[in-house]
Predict the 3D structure of the following.
Amino acid sequence: MAESHRPALARALTDRAEQLARSLDTSWGPYRLTTVTGAWARLGDPRRAGATANAASLPRPGGAR
């Protein structure tokens, strides 16, 4: 029974990690988004993985990258 909840929990945690990474206005933001990209890819969601990979490559406000 616990096995069936793991994918849903993993998706929820990855979604929250993405929200937090996108809110960072520091140089750590792209690093965190890259980590989230890998998590979405492992979870089998190429659309979300592509979106976070694109966001990680965009210039950050204030010149941070």
User: Anything to note?
Assistant: Residues 33 and 56 are 5 Å apart (CA to CA). The chain has a mean pLDDT of 83. The chain is about 75% helix and 0% strand. Residues 2-23 form the longest helix (22 residues).
